[in-house]
Amino acid sequence: MDLDYELEFDEGGINKSYINDVPAIDFSKRINYLLVKDMALTVVVKLLGKSIGFKTLQNRISNLWRPSKPFHLIDIDNGYYLVKFQNKKDYGNMLSQGLWIIFGQ
Protein backbone atom coordinates (compact mmCIF):
# COMPACT_ATOMS: atom_id res chain seq x y z
CA MET A 1 0.00 0.00 0.00
CA ASP A 2 1.64 3.26 -1.13
CA LEU A 3 0.66 6.08 1.22
CA ASP A 4 3.53 8.36 0.19
CA TYR A 5 2.03 10.12 -2.79
CA GLU A 6 1.30 13.72 -3.61
CA LEU A 7 -2.20 14.82 -4.48
CA GLU A 8 -1.99 17.54 -7.09
CA PHE A 9 -4.74 20.12 -7.21
CA ASP A 10 -5.65 21.64 -10.56
CA GLU A 11 -6.85 25.21 -10.92
CA GLY A 12 -10.45 25.19 -9.70
CA GLY A 13 -10.08 21.80 -7.98
CA ILE A 14 -10.96 23.35 -4.64
CA ASN A 15 -13.45 26.17 -4.21
CA LYS A 16 -13.80 27.91 -0.86
CA SER A 17 -17.04 29.68 -0.04
CA TYR A 18 -19.41 30.57 2.79
CA ILE A 19 -22.87 29.13 3.30
CA ASN A 20 -24.86 31.04 5.93
CA ASP A 21 -21.58 32.51 7.24
CA VAL A 22 -20.08 29.01 7.67
CA PRO A 23 -16.91 28.24 5.69
CA ALA A 24 -17.44 25.55 3.03
CA ILE A 25 -15.11 23.72 0.67
CA ASP A 26 -16.26 22.25 -2.63
CA PHE A 27 -14.04 19.77 -4.44
CA SER A 28 -14.04 19.12 -8.16
CA LYS A 29 -15.34 15.73 -9.31
CA ARG A 30 -11.76 14.55 -9.84
CA ILE A 31 -10.58 15.51 -6.35
CA ASN A 32 -13.75 14.13 -4.76
CA TYR A 33 -13.24 10.82 -6.58
CA LEU A 34 -9.63 10.57 -5.38
CA LEU A 35 -10.61 11.33 -1.77
CA VAL A 36 -13.48 8.83 -1.75
CA LYS A 37 -11.39 6.18 -3.51
CA ASP A 38 -8.62 6.56 -0.91
CA MET A 39 -11.08 6.13 1.96
CA ALA A 40 -13.11 3.26 0.44
CA LEU A 41 -11.48 0.53 2.56
CA THR A 42 -10.98 2.64 5.69
CA VAL A 43 -12.77 2.42 9.01
CA VAL A 44 -12.69 4.83 11.94
CA VAL A 45 -11.92 3.19 15.29
CA LYS A 46 -12.78 4.93 18.57
CA LEU A 47 -11.30 3.66 21.81
CA LEU A 48 -13.73 3.83 24.71
CA GLY A 49 -12.39 3.75 28.25
CA LYS A 50 -8.71 3.52 29.03
CA SER A 51 -6.00 4.38 26.52
CA ILE A 52 -4.05 1.67 24.73
CA GLY A 53 -0.59 2.18 23.26
CA PHE A 54 -0.32 2.39 19.48
CA LYS A 55 1.73 -0.80 19.01
CA THR A 56 -0.45 -2.72 21.48
CA LEU A 57 -3.58 -1.64 19.61
CA GLN A 58 -2.03 -2.52 16.26
CA ASN A 59 -1.05 -6.00 17.48
CA ARG A 60 -4.45 -6.61 19.10
CA ILE A 61 -6.34 -5.53 15.98
CA SER A 62 -4.13 -7.77 13.84
CA ASN A 63 -4.82 -10.74 16.12
CA LEU A 64 -8.57 -10.08 16.23
CA TRP A 65 -9.21 -9.33 12.57
CA ARG A 66 -6.48 -11.55 11.07
CA PRO A 67 -6.29 -9.68 7.73
CA SER A 68 -4.74 -11.51 4.79
CA LYS A 69 -2.68 -8.40 3.95
CA PRO A 70 -1.12 -5.82 6.26
CA PHE A 71 -3.29 -2.86 7.25
CA HIS A 72 -2.24 0.70 8.00
CA LEU A 73 -3.18 2.15 11.41
CA ILE A 74 -3.22 5.95 11.70
CA ASP A 75 -3.58 7.80 15.02
CA ILE A 76 -5.83 10.82 14.49
CA ASP A 77 -5.87 11.92 18.18
CA ASN A 78 -8.41 11.84 21.01
CA GLY A 79 -8.69 8.05 20.95
CA TYR A 80 -9.61 7.89 17.25
CA TYR A 81 -7.73 5.85 14.67
CA LEU A 82 -8.09 5.15 10.96
CA VAL A 83 -7.58 1.57 9.82
CA LYS A 84 -6.88 1.31 6.07
CA PHE A 85 -7.19 -2.13 4.52
CA GLN A 86 -5.60 -3.30 1.28
CA ASN A 87 -8.47 -5.46 0.07
CA LYS A 88 -12.26 -5.65 0.20
CA LYS A 89 -12.36 -9.12 1.77
CA ASP A 90 -10.44 -8.06 4.89
CA TYR A 91 -12.56 -4.90 5.16
CA GLY A 92 -15.79 -6.87 4.75
CA ASN A 93 -14.76 -9.50 7.30
CA MET A 94 -13.97 -6.81 9.85
CA LEU A 95 -17.36 -5.15 9.35
CA SER A 96 -19.40 -8.36 9.39
CA GLN A 97 -17.75 -10.11 12.32
CA GLY A 98 -17.87 -7.30 14.97
CA LEU A 99 -18.67 -6.10 17.83
CA TRP A 100 -15.00 -5.77 18.61
CA ILE A 101 -13.83 -5.71 22.21
CA ILE A 102 -10.21 -5.02 23.11
CA PHE A 103 -9.06 -5.64 26.67
CA GLY A 104 -12.66 -5.69 27.91
CA GLN A 105 -13.60 -2.42 26.22
UniProtKB/TrEMBL annotation:
Residues 41-104 form the DUF4283 domain. It holds the Pfam family DUF4283. It comes from Gossypium arboreum (Tree cotton). This is DUF4283 domain-containing protein. InterPro entries: DUF4283 (IPR025558).
